[in-house]
Amino acid sequence: MTSPLSAPTSDGRWTPRLWGTLLVLCAAMFLDALDVSMVGVALPSIGSDLGLSTSTLQWIVSGYILGYGGLLLLGGRAADLLGRRQVFLVALGVFALASLLGGLVDSGPLLIASRFIKGLSAAFTAPAGLSIITTTFAEGPLRNRALAIYTTCAATGFSMGLVLSGLLTEASWRLTMLLPAPIALIALVAGLKLLPRSAREKDHNGYDIPGAVLGTASMLLLVFTVVQAPEVGWATARTLLSFLAVAVLLTAFVLVERRSPGPLVRLGVLRSGNQIRAQLGAVAFFGSYVGFQFLTTLYMQSLLGWSALHTALAFLPAGALVALSSTKVGSIVDRFGTQKLIAVGFALMVAGYALFLQIDLDPVYAATILPSMLLIGAACALVFPSLNIQATNGVDDHEQGMVSGLLNTSVQVGGAIFLAVVTAVVTAGAPDRPTPQAVLDSYRPGFVVVACVAVAGLLITLTGLRGRRPAQQSVVVAKSTARETEKDRVPVRD
Predict the structure, then answer these.
(1) Which end of the chain has the smaller Cβ count within 10 Å, N or C?
(2) Residue 140 CA, distance from chain mean position
(3) Where is the Major facilitator superfamily (MFS) profile domain (predicted)?
């Protein structure tokens, strides 16, 4: 059942209340992406002002990733059980307070703590916001359009964050921390009036406390281990033991979830091939892009000597293309389905990364960098909304938060893992005599890894296109029963 708010007017237009609901949710997604991109450019100024070492500065970024990636599973299920509106608004309020704290502190540890709290709150707003959309907008063209606009806000926020941080840091790095606070407060006030009220799930079989503890602990430890591995070494006893502990925790988590009457993550949802491809596609999509963005920023600033603002403007065409296409992607999904669009998007992404491999120490922007950015922007416009639509289609309303948490976890874990892998590859090839050409040559294997991850995403997607039936088909989706023995056949376009 979806909310009555999802009903458009008789002529097919959305009501002002419907638009307002979507804008509030988009604001939270926009803030998440804005915050991530702004802090990276401000790090040198933060280190100089607070006297922080490079390793401490890393935790200003990693603290956010740790809180976000580690608690998404819990955040998604909490939205289902405690009420999506309540969880979203409380977490958004915490995000605003943490932003205010981050802009006022004069201590590295306090700043890192504020970043962790912001990541933690985003781990609740992201799945709650996505599940509000999927339960407010009816599945099909209405939801596809809403999700296309919603996911576009992430790319727009990220692109604007790069530009704004270059401007704000010139005045004070504290402005980059404080800017999200008033936006979050405005969204909070609007949300109190506009977001549909959602009842708590009444028929659940209790709270899966062991699953919540094991799931959160395993994700926290996994993200922590991956983030730290490039610094302490991938083959060190500490890293290997941490990965072993992650494997033990995940095994225990799976065993608990299989026996729990009200699991944190119902494993039966992963019986759907579309769901598995959406999760793995999210890992490959964000993992490749984060690695690309990291290396490209180093290339532009360290080798070419571009300013932070110049670098941000170089990335801007990709974000602008995503923003301009936001209202069109939903109708394209309606016509062609998610699988084809994801495959085309990954193909464009591979082409963009391959073209970027031709860079040198004196690049012609219009010949190499701009076409690469446009190809990658087109890929993001097609892939990210389609992954969200594919992951949430055919899922019962009371499990939308859970699936949203799974998808966001895949995105964050993919970004953390492949950024660490790319960093390790580049570090391993670092030249003894760092001439500009030698440094550029050390970057190339990292770009090859990025392209290979995108190729893996394309191959995973293509498995869903082999021997496909017509677009409208019956997809088997396991029902959320205690024993998971019954199945529904849900008509869905994938």
Answers:
(1) N
(2) 23
(3) 21-469
143 closest CA partner among 490, 393, 387: 393
pLDDT above 90 (res 419): no
Residues 6+ apart with CB under 8 A from 78: 87, 124, 128, 401
What is the rounded distance in angstroms from the CA atom of residue 395 to the CA atom of residue 83? 17
Q: State phi, psi for 337 to the nearest 5 degrees.
A: 85, 160
The position carrying tokens 């964000």 is: 286
Beta bridge partners of 493: 472
Whole-structure pTM value: 0.78
Residue 377 near residue 317 (C-beta atoms within 8 A): yes
The set of residues, in sequence order, having a beta carbon less than 8 Å from that of 15 and lying 6+ positions away, is 5, 8, 9
Query: Coil, strand or helix: which one is 493?
Result: strand
Segment (H or E) for 405: helix 400-428
Helices (H), 84-234: 84-104, 108-136, 141-171, 173-178, 180-194, 209-232
- What pLDDT, in 10s, does the model give residues 53-85? 766 776 787 788 778 877 887 888 788 888 889
Side chain identity, residue 165? S
Contact, 165 vs 43, CB < 8 A?
no
Distance of alpha carbon 470 from alpha carbon 467, whole angstroms: 10
d(CA 39, CA 165): 7
Q: What is the pLDDT of residue 408?
A: 83
Dihedral angle sign, alpha carbons of residues 231, 235, 236, 241: positive
Give residue 180's identity as a one-letter amino acid code.
Answer: P
Contacts of 240 (CB under 8 A, 6+ apart): none
Mean pLDDT of 395-399: 78
- How far is Cα 28 from Cα 111, in angstroms, rounded to an integer? 21
Question: Which tokens is 7 given?
Answer: 């009903």
Identify the structural domains of the chain with CATH numbers, from first to last. 13-199+264-493 (1.20.1250.20)
User: Closest by alpha carbon to 126, among 68, 184, 177?
Assistant: 68
What does the pLDDT look like over 179-230, one tens digit per residue?
999 999 999 999 999 998 766 655 555 566 788 788 888 888 887 888 788 7
